[in-house]
Structures are given as C-alpha cells and as structure tokens.
Design goal:
- The chain is mainly beta.
- The protein folds into two domains: about 90 residues, Immunoglobulins (Immunoglobulin-like, Sandwich), CATH 2.60.40; about 550 residues, TonB-dependent receptor, beta-barrel domain (Maltoporin, Chain A).
- Helices cover about 5% and strands about 65% of the residues.
- The N and C termini lie far apart (about 65 Å).
C-alpha cells in the first residue's frame, strides 16, 4: 500500500513538472482565437518584424481548440496578424523581450462583405444572394455526382436545360464564363461536375460585365483549395445507364504563409445510347411528300482534366497567381439513319439507310496569370489578369449509304464517303479593374477588357470513286474567323444613410465596346467583315425597407452578337434532307431591359422575386425554308422585333430541422413581329412559356443527406413552332463514414426515364415533328476520402476559396 502511494505521488509531481515546463516554453508566443462564441480553427497567425513587415519571423495555424504556438522568437518588436477567409483580418503590436507571451482571447469579426445572406442554411449553404443574382454551391447538388457541368446546370434554380443540352435563362441563351473569363471550352460536357466549386447566376449584370449577355451570365467557378498545410482528397465512382459509367478525381494542395500550390486530376468515362424519330409533310410537293426518319446512336465518351494552381503572396497586400488547365475529350459515335419517303398518294417513293462511324478527339488548354492588390482602405482594389485558352478538335467520319426498293431489297452499290472536320480556336483576355473611393459613401470602378479570338475550321467530304476517295469541293470548306472586342467601363456606386444602415443604394454605369471581326471561306469566295462601336448604359436603385427586405429597380442596354456558327456561311449537307448553315449578313440584336426585384428574408423562409421586360431589335432565330427539291434549309435570320416580359421567383424554406427546400419558377410571354421575313405569317407571333424546379433536402440521421430534385420545362416557342415540354426527377443520397473523412454516395438521374426532347413545326409549306430520347436514367455509386486529418471534411463539403 505504501509503495502504491509513493508511485502516485511521484506521478503527480512528474505531471506537474511537465505542465510547468510546457507553460514556460522559452522563446514562444501563444494564444487562443475565437469568433466570440466558439474557437476558430485554421486561422493564419503570422509574426512580422516591425522594422520590415515584408519578412515573416514565425508562422502558425490554430488547432481545433483555436490555440496557436509561435516558437523560436528573437527579442524585438513585432506585428502579429490573424487571417481567416470570411472574417476581418486583425493585427496587434507586441514586444518580445525573451519572456514567453500568452495572449488573452483574440476575437475575429465576421466580414459582412464576404459573408452574404444565406438563403438556405442546411448542412451546407446552398444559395447565396448577391447584388446581381445568386451563387449556387456545387457541393449541395449531390444528385449530380459523377456528371458534367450540363448535369449540374439542370438542377440550378431559374436555369433551363433541354434534353439536347441547350442552356437558357429567361428564354434566351446566356453568356457562359469560366472563372469569370471567356474560354475556348464552350462545351459544358467538357467540365466534370466534380471539378466545379460554385455556379454564379448573374441576371442583373452591371456595366462591369460583357454587354453580350441578353438574358444574363452564368459564371462557372472551378475548385481552388485554400486550406493551410498539406492536404488532399480522392473520389471514385461507377455506375450504369444503358451502358457503364465511371469517374474519379484526386486533389492535392499545400499552403504555407506565402505559397499555395494545388494539383487536381479528374476523369469521366461513359457509354450512352440515343434514338431519334422524325416525320415531315411537304404540302405542295407530290413526290417527296411524306418523309419518315428514324435514327439510333451508340456512343462512348471519355473526359480527363488536369489543373494546376500556384499562388504567391509576398506580403498581405499583393498576390500573384498562375493557373493552368488541360482537358482531353474523346467521343465515338456509331449512328444509323433510316429514311422512307412516300408520295402524296401515300405510295412508296424511295428508301435508304445511312450508317456512319464518327470519331471525335478534342484537346483544350487554358492558362491564366492574375494579380491582386489590396490597400489599407478596403474600398480600394486593383486586379489584373491575362488569360489564353486553346481548343483543338478533330472529327473523322466514315459513311456508307444503301438504297432500297419498296420490298426493302438493295438497289445498286453502297455509296461510301469520308468526312473530316478539324477545328482550331484560341481565345485570349486582358483584363484590368480598379476601384477607388471618391467620398465616404461613393466608389468608382473602372476597367478595361480585351477579348481576342481566332478560329479555323477545315471541313472536307470525299466520295469513293474507282477505289479512291476523291474530295467533293461542293461540300468541302475551309473557314477562317478572327474577332477583337475592346471594352472600357466606368461604374459609380453610392448609398445614403449610415454604413451599417444603408437606406438607398445607387449604381450607375457606362460601357463602350468596339467589335471588329472578319471571316472568309476557302479562296475568299465568301467574305464578311464587321466593325462597330456600341455604348451600353446601366443603372439601378435599391431601397432597403428593412435589414432583411429590399426593392430594386434597374435598367440596362445589352447586345446579342451572332456567334461563330451563326456567321459561318458554309452549308452542311451531312443530312441531305435537313441541311443547315450560317448567315454572314446577320446584324447583332440590341436589347433594352428593365427589371424590378423584391427580396425578403424570414427566420425559416426567403423569397426573391424579379419582374423583367425585354425589348429586342433584329431578333436572331433559326428559320427553315423549304426548297423545290423537298429539302428544308435551316439558317439564322434577323426576323424582326421581340418583346418578352415575365416573372422569376425563388422561394426557399426550412420548416423543420431535418428538411429544407427550394422552389423556383420562371414564366414569360413573348410577342414576335417577324416583319423582316417574306413569309412572316409562318412565324409564331405570340407564346407563353414557363419552367420550374423543386429541390428537397433531407437529413434523415446523423451524417446522412437525401436530395430529390424535380424539373419541368413547358413547351417553348421556336420561330416556326415549339419545342415539346420536358420533365424529370433526380435523386441523390450521401452518408458520412468513420470520422467524417469519408463519404459514400448514391445517385439516380432521371428516375422515371421521362427526359426527352423534340419540336413541332407547322407552316404554310410544311409540317415536321421530331423527338429524341437518350438513356438519361442512370445509377452512380461514389466513394470519397480525405487523407489528412487537419483537412477534415472541408474538401468534401466544398469549402474552397471564391477569390
């Protein structure tokens, strides 16, 4: 018993001595940081000599209890700085004399400019409001794990995506940016959902943004890890639709006081099927009167991305960064098209079957240099960037066509063809933005943006003749296009009232854009050029009724410039009965937009409503003209004037602790005056359209999340008819495993296999219908794991820098 007591006394003395030794650690500065209520983890603690603040004497990061330790400190005067994204930076002077310093509780204040009002506050912020729209956090969309940017966009409020992957906002195609910049990566299926941090929807862009955004801007921000230390994560997924699918990703990052280096790789491989049926009646053509077509596609596709980011911050006010993105895409498409033609008496006229094997390979690369300068006055800022992106696309197709009689017996020999379509594109941006205060309540923003685009397309078609493929110059073409857009802007922002209680907010801007482009086909047989300067004013006034309620009225003038496909005069006759081409004589649309917004937040609910009016001159629409031989030639035309007005609402709610939801609805009326067309009576003159979606998020138990999303897009008017309505339901489930450093996910897209696209046109000369159905119903199982404990679940929860 005495021996036991002696051992106990010795252990107590040893523990006391060790604790005393730890607390008296020499050459150290210690402390604890919180937000006033709870400890803050991952706070950067930087110690700089007062005589030279460009140098760092010591660096640490707070642990889960908010504590930090700086060691090996020399006697001197210092500035001690504390930084954490979402909080205001803090600093204080200390004088170290050789005696350990223990600081009392240090409190960091949230930065209201960085932390916008959260509309849905479930396990993860889903939607953040901004002055120009909202930001949708990609990780909250667990029902699209393993998909692409297209799949992600399908489930974002107010965004409509049809079954052919056409994207629209308020009934028109938006401007799409990658990391805030124009990119040669224009196919949203080239971007895996796993590489997306957030998607910003800008429905009320100011003069700071490109004017070529009639319905708004969609800015896709790619992931950029900004956590301290060495950390990373890996994701592996697999599943099937009609065919198998697989995806994986790996992310690594290391951040120190001055450097942040990240590397990410992701891929996606899938097999898909598609079936298309079409029928057409040519009213005044007797021979080729009824045309029935059916097509089946077997497709395999692969996608790989590699991303590098390097950030260097020599001091608190300057940051230089470099980003590089490499993309490789492959797609093999095996297609069979069967065509039956009957005369006006419903008798057999002709029949053929066209088989093609199309091999596509694309490579894209993007490089960006960015500079960010901060000032002692946080209202003042300077940013600059130079970016360039390249896209190389090669498509080779072997085609064989057989003709048949009415008994489906072959007629004559098989007709063999080969085509290739080689495209090269480069888009570069030079951007400078500078903001500075002119008074206590007013800020001026100015800037320049130059966009430079080069494009070359080489399309060649060859027919097999006497055992050799001979190029057919009638259906072959080389097209060169280049464009320069130089823009400058000035923007005035002001408010009335106090800084904490701003009663009125004002915004007034002016943007000038000079556009110069030219294009030429092979041997300059078709050549066009455009050079014009346009001025685009914008303005808004906001009345803050309460801290959680406001009204906003805005006006802007915008432009819809014809894109490359619209201007390319080459006629593609791959489908001989439905050729299509561009129109080099198109004029840009000029649009005047007025918008009235209302926002209101409650404890568990939030409502955002927008009424908009849009008047567009020189409206560009695809328009089909029936030729004498029964062929319908489809080309874009400036059909006339279009007036669109409608209402857009987003309602978010969290009535109970384990459930939250979001309902969005967009409805609009279009009135079209097609006075520029010779047969304007063929054009739809009035149409009402709407689309909506509901997002349901459940937390059935600890660590589990269930998401069910429903979409519905009503019929949408086209120039000569309408697109059919589309609807689908997606489901996703995610479960945390272990110590929350791993997750298991299950996704089912288009649960009821209802998603299909198509259109119905009816004119004085012809009627045609078409439906397309892909294997949109698919199941995916994913596993994600983080392999550093200090990283925890922040990568899985998508807590990435939005800078």
């Amino acid at each position: 018993m005495e021996k036991w007591k002696q051992n106990l006394i010795a252990a107590i003395l040893l523990f006391a001595i060790s604790q005393y030794s730890f607390s008296q650690k020499t050459n150290s500065v210690t402390g604890t940081i919180s937000d006033g209520k709870t400890p803050l983890e991952f706070v950067d603690v930087v110690l700089k000599p007062l005589t030279d603040t460009t140098k760092t004497a010591a660096y640490a990061v707070t642990d889960s209890s908010g504590k930090f330790v700086l060691e090996n400190i020399s006697s001197a005067e210092y500035i001690l700085k504390f930084r954490l994204i979402g909080f205001k930076s803090n600093s204080q002077k200390i004088k170290y004399t050789g005696t350990p310093i223990s600081l009392s509780n240090i409190v960091l204040q949230e930065d209201a400019n960085l932390l916008n009002t959260v509309v849905v506050n479930s396990q993860k912020k889903q939607i953040q409001k901004t002055n120009e729209g909202f930001v949708f956090n990609a990780v909250s969309n667990i029902s699209q794990t393993g998909g692409t940017a297209i799949d992600m966009l399908k489930n974002i409020p107010t965004v409509a995506v049809d079954a052919d992957d056409a994207i629209s906002l308020r009934g028109k195609t938006p401007l799409i940016l990658i990391n805030g910049k124009n990119s040669a990566i224009t196919n949203m299926n080239q971007i895996p959902a796993s590489s997306i941090e957030s998607i910003e929807i800008i429905t009320s862009p100011t003069a700071k943004y490109d004017a070529n955004a009639e319905s708004g801007i969609i800015n896709i921000k790619l992931k950029k890890n900004n956590l301290n230390g060495l950390n990373g994560a890996a994701v592996l997924g697999g599943g099937f639709g009609a065919k198998g699918r697989m995806n994986s990703s790996v992310l690594l990052n290391n951040k120190t006081d001055k450097w942040n280096v990240g590397l990410a790789y992701d891929n996606r491989f899938a097999g898909r099927t598609k079936s298309i049926k079409g029928e057409r009646t040519n009213y005044f053509i007797d021979d080729e009167h009824f045309i029935n077509q059916s097509r089946s596609d077997e497709r395999t596709e692969g996608l790989q991305n590699l991303k590098l980011n390097v950030d260097f911050s020599p001091n608190d006010r300057n940051t230089i960064s470099f980003e590089a993105l490499g993309n490789m895409e492959s797609q093999d498409n095996d297609e069979t098209l069967k065509t039956d033609i009957l005369n006006s008496s419903n008798q057999f006229y002709s029949s053929n079957k066209r088989h093609s094997l199309e091999l596509e390979r694309s490579k894209a690369a993007e490089f960006a240099f960015n500079y960010d300068r901060k000032f002692s006055d946080d209202r003042k800022s300077l940013t600059a960037s130079i970016t360039t992106s390249y896209n190389f696309h090669r498509e080779n197709t072997d085609i064989d066509t057989d003709n048949y009689d009415e008994n489906y017996a072959p007629i004559g020999d098989t007709f063999w063809q080969r085509t290739h379509n080689y495209e090269k594109e480069n888009i570069s941006n030079a951007i400078v933005n500078y903001a500075f205060p002119i008074s206590e309540k007013s800020i001026i923003e100015t800037g320049y943006k130059g966009t430079f685009r080069l494009f070359n397309s080489d399309f060649q078609s060859a027919d097999l003749t006497n055992g050799e493929y001979v190029v057919n110059p009638m259906v072959s073409n080389i097209f060169d296009f280049n464009e320069q857009i130089n823009a400058v802007y000035a923007l005035w922002n002001s408010y009335s009232g106090s800084k904490e209680n701003q009663k009125w907010k004002y915004n007034l801007g002016l943007r000038a854009e000079n556009v110069s482009n030219n294009g030429a086909t092979q041997n300059n047989s078709d050549h066009f050029s455009n050079d014009y300067l346009k001025i685009f004013p914008s303005g808004s006034v906001q009345l803050n009724l309460k801290s959680d309620e406001f009204l906003k009225f805005g006006y802007s003038k915008r432009i819809n410039r014809p894109d490359l496909d619209d201007l390319n005069p080459f006629i593609d006759i791959t489908d001989a009965l439905n050729p299509h081409g561009g129109n080099p004589y198109l004029k840009p649309e000029i649009i005047h937009i007025v918008e009235l917004s209302y926002n209101k937040d409650w404890d568990k609910y939030s409502l955002s409503g927008n009424a908009f009016y849009r008047n567009a001159n020189n409206t560009i629409r695809q328009y089909g003209v029936l030729q004498d031989n029964g062929v319908i030639l489809l080309q874009p035309q400036n059909i006339g004037n279009t007036v669109t007005y409608g209402l857009e609402t987003i309602f978010s709610f969290k009535p109970i602790s384990f459930y939250d939801g979001n309902i969005s609805l967009t409805a609009f009326q279009q009135n079209i005056n097609a006075g520029n067309l010779p047969q304007s009576e063929d054009v739809v003159s009035s149409a009402f359209s709407w689309y909506g979606k509901i997002i349901n998020n459940f937390t059935p138990w600890k660590g589990g999340k269930l998401q069910v999303i429903g979409n519905y897009n009503s019929a949408v008017a086209t120039a000569q008819g309408k697109r059919i309505p589309i609807y689908n339901v997606d489901m996703g489930f995610q479960q945390k495993l272990g110590k929350s450093n791993a997750r298991l996910g299950l996704v089912v897209t288009d649960m009821f296999n209802t998603l299909e696209s198509g259109y119905k046109n009816n004119t004085l000369l012809f009627r045609n219908n078409r439906t397309s159905k892909s294997d949109t119903r698919a199941l995916m199982l994913t596993f994600a794991y983080t392999f550093r404990s200090d990283f925890k679940e922040k990568l899985l929860e998508n807590q990435f820098s939005t800078e």
